[in-house]
Write a structure and sequence with these properties.
heterodimer; A: about 150 residues; alpha+beta; Alpha-D-Glucose-1,6-Bisphosphate, Chain A, domain 4; eight-stranded antiparallel β-sheet; about 30% helix; B: about 120 residues; mainly alpha; Arc Repressor Mutant, subunit A; two-stranded antiparallel sheet; 5 helices; 2 strands
Chain lengths: ~150, ~120
């Protein structure tokens, strides 16, 4: 048993060639969130983000085939431009949460670039969400395939 | 209870002391008394955490009244870890797209949408 398997927490680190303020805004400005939150080809037309402690987040992703993947959330802690604590939920069609994930986002300034660390911890999850996620993962993969094809043509 | 096993597993894992207890048990079975030592918490407090872990099916305890060794039960952890992998993939792809978005904004190629 490795340590990772006793810590079902996701830790992702990425460096972006952009100032912290912009990366922070990408997570707090609904119009910006709508530009990148879903897979390529998906749209998030009704994104809302009430950026204050306890404020709600709503991100419904519309797949090209018409399927809507509903998502919600709550902002918990907002320290621009360095730290953001928020939860995200995966919702079923009746807006019941199938899963709730607690996310901590840290942004570090690295010579004009921004190092992002995301720690995601699952708070609760309905077993049916595994199926739901698998569908979402397919969506992401097919959109990445489409992107790869597009890039190959350039 | 079985239908909500994942929630119970994740709930039990939400506490850092309980995760530390599991990490310790990953090294081998041990007694409650031994478990309590590195955590600087009382025996009843450890027992409480163990009950949560046991309900979640993450540990099993021996039957002997004198020494009830705690043992890690790996199955629910594997289920929980299996849940995380697609989620990781989705986030990796999301960050790819965020990167592309930020580059667009920086290079001025991106049309900023506004309400007005």
């Amino acid at each position: 048993m490795t340590e990772a398997s006793t810590h079902p927490e996701l830790v992702l680190t990425r460096t972006f060639d952009a100032p912290r303020e912009l990366v922070f805004a990408a997570f707090t400005d609904a119009r910006r969130l709508a530009q990148w939150w879903g897979p390529e080809g998906f749209t998030t037309p009704d994104a809302t983000a009430d950026v204050r402690p306890g404020g709600a987040l709503r991100l419904d992703m519309h797949a090209p085939d018409g399927t809507i993947y509903r998502g919600g959330g709550t902002y918990h802690e907002i320290v621009p431009p360095e730290r953001l604590v928020f939860s995200t939920t995966i919702l079923d069609d009746d807006l019941q949460a199938l899963a709730e994930v607690h996310n901590t986002l840290t942004l570090l300034e690295r010579g004009g670039k921004t190092e992002l660390t995301l720690r995601a911890r699952v708070v609760r999850a309905d077993p049916s969400v595994a199926h739901h996620l698998a569908g979402m993962e397919e969506g992401w993969k097919s959109s990445l395939d489409a992107l790869a094809k597009y890039v190959a043509q350039l | 209870m079985a239908s909500d096993q994942l929630s119970i597993t994740f709930g039990a894992l939400a506490d850092p002391t309980r995760r530390a207890i599991l990490a310790r048990l990953a090294l081998g079975e041990t007694s409650v008394t031994e478990l309590a030592v590195p955590f600087r918490i009382s025996l009843p407090a450890v027992t409480k955490h163990l009950k949560v872990l046991q309900r979640a099916g993450l540990i099993t305890r021996g039957r002997s009244a004198q020494w009830r060794p705690c043992r890690l039960a790996a199955e629910p952890l594997r289920d929980a870890a299996g849940w995380m992998e697609p989620y990781r993939q989705i986030w990796e792809a999301k960050l790819d797209r965020l990167d592309a978005y930020l580059n667009d904004v920086r290079s001025g190629n991106h049309q900023e949408t506004t309400d007005d």
